[in-house]
Amino acid sequence: MARGVSYEALARRYALGADSLRRHAKSHLPAQLRAKLLAGPDISLDLDKLRETESQSLLANLVALRHRLYASLDVAEAAGDSGMAARVISQLHKNLELAGRLLGDLNTGSTSVTNILVSPVYVEMRVELVRALAPFPEARSAVAAVLHQLESKAAEAVTIEADRQLATGAVPT
């Protein structure tokens, strides 16, 4: 009614009389209520809490659906219906994948490591920093020592990671 749906359409949908709907609107749908209904629900929600409860509900439904899928798989296998079994297995796979993503157990995408030690900007900054400290030999030596120590640790970490990737057959990015 608030959105302007005809009384006749509402009467057909809810098996009511159009005249009784008109009377109801006249008696119980003042302008303020009509405006509030048109504006929609109050959206002062705690989005974090909503996200948490919805996530829990979604996971609970995924688990319940998974149980039904396993039961369907049992039926398909008992009937010897390999086509049905394949479809159910596909849905189980999707269910498990979605649950894994929601729980953070499945990482998607790729990881890239940028080594700033070989970045031209870093090398230029390092050279200029040491050059700027030329009038201060003790500070220059101290900064050079710290940079050398940090760069040595980073180089060691890069070597260890490269060896690990070679051992596992992973391709470095």
What report would you give on this structure?
The mean pLDDT is about 85. The chain has seven helices and no strands. It is flat, with a radius of gyration of 33 Å. Helix content is about 75%, strand content about 0%. It has about 170 residues and is mainly α.
How would a textbook summarize the main sheet?
A: none
Series of H and E elements: HHHHHHH
Say what oligomer this is.
Answer: single chain
Q: Helical element count?
A: 7
Approximately how much beta-strand content do the residues carry?
under 5%
Q: What are the segments in which pLDDT stays under 50 over at least 5 consecutive residues? A: none
Mean pLDDT: 84
Looking at the structure, what is the overall shape? Answer: flat
The structure class reads mainly alpha
Number of strands: 0
**How many angstroms does the end-to-end distance come to?**
60 Å
Q: Whole-number radius of gyration?
A: 33 Å
Assign a percent range to the helix content. over 70%
List the helices and strands and how they pair.
Layout: H1 7-14, H2 18-28, H3 31-39, H4 47-79, H5 82-103, H6 120-132, H7 137-168
Helix pairs in contact: 1-2, 4-5, 6-7
